[in-house]
Structures are given as structure tokens and as C-alpha cells.
Design a protein that fits this description.
Blueprint lengths: L11 H4 L6 E3 L31 E6 L3 E6 L4 E5 L17 E6 L3 E6 L4 E5 L17 E6 L3 E6 L4 E5 L17 E6 L3 E6 L4 E5 L17 E6 L3 E6 L4 E5 L15 E8 L4 E7 L3 E4 L4 E3 L5 E4 L1 E3 L3 E7 L7 E2 L7 E4 L10 E8 L2 E4 L3 E5 L29 H20 L9
Parallel strand pairs: 20-28
Antiparallel strand pairs: 1-2, 2-3, 3-4, 5-6, 6-7, 8-9, 9-10, 11-12, 12-13, 14-15, 15-16, 17-18, 19-22, 21-25, 23-24, 23-26, 26-27, 26-28
Length: 424
């Protein structure tokens, strides 16, 4: 097999019939393999043996031909060749190519010095790189049906080739704005600006340039133009599609709901996406609880997008956590808590295939009653009778002895006989 750096993307070799899309791989891994399938009437899925043992870092599929870029900056092309679209120009030999894009019957390459080379069908001037790009640094290229786009380092777009529907007439609304990405459809064009907004122009017979209102106020991070439809990826990993929809390419399938899209591309009448399930999102954190010994206590938590939940406890201020057996619902009830539970923390762990998210911990405080009883709540004042005596700190037995002595003395005085004193 041929080594490549994200084999799942290689379906693009068989699928991007017009869109001129290309996807660069992130980190090549030894042992990755490239696969191409689909229509092979022109050899477009016959990956050349010349790629064996080489690392491919980017691919792009045209109408009926395919391009590959290897880690040494060289381009390999194969498939339909009615207009020389797979005849890589000798001018690229010895130069380092950093990006590639295939149109329907033409090809584009961007070299490390920021210059564009184009070859193949030039019936509509799509391979005639404009003189206006001379001396400027190009950072991205995109091949459409019969037109081409280039993005320069100053964030400006240059378009050339077939213009029957205005697909090469860059809108004045882009003047003074910084464009960060471009994508050419069959007969329309897309641009993404630094503020995360999409501008589209060209053919709109199928609504492919009518950017949806649902994107207003959202930040778009990537775009892709199909034959007669368009795609946008927002910062929350969600895809928006619009335009021609004869095969469902203009709508986002329900299967993508709740998943984060990492990369995507639009083909002639289909789309590809690499997705990841988004982790759950916590909506309710458990609250701290205070109870008396013997009370029952309930903690509640909730999240969206989870498949399992597990409550955990920590007795060392959150340093370590252990699962509570059987505590697998959104509520946790503790029966007859004791003072040994005081200070224990509890949290819920919500999980799905995208990861695990923990709630913030809740602390249980168990406060003993004043008389040591299990029930009640608080200490009642001691009952008193008669006037209150100020506390003096004298021991009780001393006070009792003094009281007895006074009592005896008083009794003796009352029992003494009374005598009359005669006057002298």
C-alpha cells in the first residue's frame, strides 16, 4: 500500500468531482495507507507505484484526475489527461510545492516562494496565472470548474478563468478586509474573512452563494465549495450546508448532530467529514449540603449529550476520587449520614465516546446537635427556676457545704431560750 497521513481522507481522490478541494494531513504516521475507490474509467483511482515508500502530505481530486503532494515537496498526478492536467510541468522540478488543488480539467500548485504554477485545460484562461500576482506572495490556491482562485499574504483574493456567472468577479465588499481562506466551486466562489464571515459570489441558480442567515453572528473557521452547493464549518465544530440538494448534499445529516467536525470537503454532489463526538456539557452542578447525624441527603446533577453517569466521593479534599457503587443516575441519595461523613466531597462524572466531564464537587457538612442526640437541629437553652445567679466559678460542692453550714447556724439561733433582763 501507499503511505499517507490520514487514510480516511483518501476517499476524496475518488469523490471531489468538481470542487477542487484539497485536504492537507496533519501528522504522517508510519504504516498509514492510502485508498482510492470509485469511478476508475480514466485511472483516477489507480494510485501510482511511484508513491510507494514516500509520505504523502496532501491530496486533491479534480473532475477525473488526482493529485498528491509528498513530504519532499513534489507533485504526482494521475488519471484523465485530455488537457495535460496530469503532466506536472518541468518548471516545478527542484522546487518545493507546499499546496495543490485540482480543478475539473486543470491543476494548480503553490511553491514555497509563494508563486503559483498552473497547467491543463486553458480554454477559459484558468491556467493563465495573472500578471498581478507577480512579486506577490500567494498563500493558498483553489481550482474550480473552469476558474481559479489565489489568496495572497495581504489577505486579498485574485480570481481568473471562466466568468460566465461572475465567479471571478471578486466582490467589492472584500476590499479592505482580510481573507483567510478561499474555495472554488464549479461556477461559484467562496471566501472566509478574518472576522469569521463568509462571502460568496458567482452562479446562484441553486442558492449556492446565498449564505444562510443561520451563520450570522457565528464564527466560521473553514469553507468548501462543491459543484453547486457550499459548506461552512463554525467554531463550535458544526457544519452548515446550502445550495443544490438533489442528493442530500445541501443539508447536514442528523447523524452529525452532537458531533464535532474536525475537517470536511465538498464534492460534486456529496460531502465528506471527519468528526468526533463532543464530550457531555454540564448543565447542573451539585450543591453543598448541611445535615445533622441521621439525616438523609440528596445531591443532584445533570448534563447534555451523556450516555453514562457515575457518582464519586473524595475524603481527602479532592486529591483522589472513588466510584460509589450503584450511583449511576443524576441523583445521589445518602441515608442516615454520620459525623464521619463530615467534609466528604461528591461529584458526578458524565461520559460518552467523546470523553468524560466532571461536575464541580459538592461538600457535605454534618453538624452534631448540642446534647449529642441524633435528631433535632440546634442546642436548646437549659431550663431555670427562680432568679438566675451570676456565675462565680466557685465549685458546686463548696457552695453546698456553705449552704448547709448556714442552715445549721440559723437553726441553732432559733432554738436558744430567750431570757428577760431585769433593769438594775
Amino acid at each position: 500500500m501507499i503511505r499517507w497521513s490520514a487514510s480516511v481522507l483518501c476517499g476524496l481522490l475518488a469523490g471531489l468531482a468538481v470542487g477542487g478541494g484539497s485536504l492537507a494531513a496533519a501528522q504522517p504516521t508510519p504504516g498509514d495507507e492510502v485508498f482510492a475507490w470509485g469511478d476508475d474509467r480514466d485511472g483516477q483511482t489507480d494510485v501510482p507505484p511511484s508513491l510507494i515508500g514516500r509520505t504523502v502530505t496532501a491530496i486533491s481530486a479534480g473532475g477525473y484526475h488526482s493529485l498528491a503532494l509528498t513530504s519532499d515537496g513534489q507533485v504526482t498526478a494521475w488519471g484523465y489527461n485530455n488537457n495535460g492536467q496530469i503532466d506536472v510541468p518541468p518548471s516545478l522540478i527542484g522546487r518545493t510545492v507546499t499546496a495543490i488543488s485540482a480543478g475539473r480539467y486543470h491543476s494548480l500548485a503553490l511553491t514555497s516562494d509563494g508563486q503559483v504554477t498552473a497547467w491543463g485545460d486553458n480554454t477559459d484562461g484558468q491556467t493563465a496565472v495573472p500578471d498581478s500576482l507577480i512579486g506577490r506572495t500567494v498563500t493558498a490556491v483553489s481550482g474550480g470548474g473552469f476558474h481559479s482562485l489565489a489568496l495572497t499574504s495581504d489577505g486579498q483574493v485574485t480570481a481568473w478563468g471562466y466568468n460566465t456567472d461572475g465567479q471571478t468577479a471578486v466582490p467589492p465588499s472584500l476590499i479592505g478586509r482580510t481573507v483567510t481562506a478561499i474555495s472554488a466551486g464549479a461556477i461559484h466562489s467562496l471566501a472566509l474573512t478574518s472576522d469569521g464571515q463568509v462571502t460568496a459570489w458567482g452562479d446562484n441558480d441553486d442558492g449556492q452563494t446565498a449564505v444562510p442567515d443561520s451563520l450570522i453572528g457565528r464564527t466560521v473557521t473553514a469553507i468548501s465549495g462543491g459543484a453547486f452547493h457550499s459548506l461552512a464549518l463554525t467554531s463550535d465544530g458544526q457544519v452548515t450546508a446550502w445550495g443544490y440538494n438533489n442528493n442530500g448534499q445541501g443539508v447536514v445529516p442528523a447523524a452529525l448532530a452532537g458531533r464535532t467536525t474536525l475537517a470536511f470537503d465538498a464534492g460534486d454532489s456529496h460531502n465528506l467529514a471527519i468528526t468526533r463526538v463532543a464530550p457531555p456539557v454540564i448543565t447542573t452542578n451539585p450543591a453543598n449540603q448541611t445535615a445533622a447525624p441521621g439525616d438523609n441527603v440528596t445531591f443532584t446533577a445533570d448534563a447534555t449529550g451523556y450516555t453514562t453517569v457515575q457518582w464519586q466521593r473524595s475524603t481527602d479534599n479532592g486529591a483522589t476520587w472513588t466510584d460509589i457503587p450503584g450511583a449511576t443516575t443524576t441523583t445521589l441519595t445518602l441515608t442516615a449520614v454520620t459525623t464521619t461523613d463530615n467534609g466528604t466531597q461528591y461529584r458526578a462524572a458524565f461520559s460518552n465516546t467523546g470523553g468524560t466531564v466532571n461536575t464541580t464537587p459538592a461538600t457535605l457538612t454534618v453538624t452534631p446537635t448540642g446534647n449529642g442526640d441524633a435528631g433535632g437541629g440546634g442546642t436548646e437553652p437549659a431550663a431555670t427556676s427562680g432568679p438566675e445567679l451570676a456565675a462565680t466559678g466557685t465549685p458546686l460542692h463548696t457552695l453546698l457545704a456553705l449552704a448547709i453550714t448556714l442552715l445549721i447556724a440559723g437553726t441553732a439561733m432559733r432554738s436558744r431560750p430567750r431570757t428577760r433582763r431585769d433593769p438594775s
